[in-house]
Amino acid sequence: MKNTAFFIGFMLGYILFVSSCKSPDKHEINTLPLPTLKAADYFKSGVQKADSGNYKEAIGFYDMAIEIYPKFATAYYYRGLAKFKIVEYQNAINDFSQAIKLNPEFEEAYLKRGAVKAYLSDFESALNDYNTAIFLNASYAPSYACRGFLYFEMKQFKKALDDYNQALYYDPGDKETYFKRGKTFSILGDDRNALFDYDKAIELNYDSPDVYSSRGDSKYLLGDLKGACTDWKTADKMGDALIYKTIKQLCR
Fold first, then answer.
1. Whole-model pTM?
2. How many domains does the chain have?
3. Cβ neighbours, 10 Å, residue 108
4. Model confidence over 16-54: pLDDT tens digits?
5. CATH value at residue 233
6. Across 101-128, average pLDDT
7. Contact present, 144 and 163 (Cβ < 8 Å)
8. CA separation (Å) from 159 to 71, 84, 185?
9. Residues 6 or more apart from 39 whose CB is under 8 A from it?
10. Which of 120, 138, 234, 251 has the fewest Cβ atoms within 10 Å of its own Cβ atom?
11. Which domain holds residue 198?
12. Are 233 and 251 in contact (CB under 8 A)?
């Protein structure tokens, strides 16, 4: 009932995904040649600045690290994350590309570059990056989850479902992927499986009004109006600004 809200929510999800990252690659930092230990210090300072939301200052530290050690792939990767945060999308892609050039097996760089491309609606190029990330590590759940959502955006729903299944096989506790798979089941008209996934997402503490409003939609389509109204009202209390009209029309 609220595909627009779903789309907006997951575009914000792209932002969160691109912005998130693993801990610094300690192996790469600790094995830098002796003349470049200062580069590692600058890099660590950049990570600290980014963690506190000072992305422009973080970029300055990453710049200094890269100037000292131009082959510092992880610094390019983190600078790409910071540039995405300040809306320098193409520059972020360029940094991820440089990280990949320096380390062709840098799966996280492929994954984040793909996420930025998907955010910019460059779906085919994003798909290539996700495919490469999966080739490099076939058991990494986030790669399947990201490609699954890309397929969803491309309206290839059965492929999306296959990828969400793989993501949950490797990470059964991924509450967001349960929600996304539930939305895919809903699109395909399989409301019982959608309901199962929404229940699972809520069980795993997926704290979003969208999951309650979506579960309400599935309950309504399965003939459970009372349960639907309970979920819609919960979504309304959680801040879903679009559900009020549905409650007013259908709930007593």
1. 0.85
2. 1
3. 22
4. 455 444 445 655 666 666 558 899 999 999 999 999 999
5. 1.25.40.10
6. 94
7. yes
8. 37, 28, 12
9. 32, 64, 65, 66, 68, 69, 72, 75
10. 138
11. 173-252
12. yes
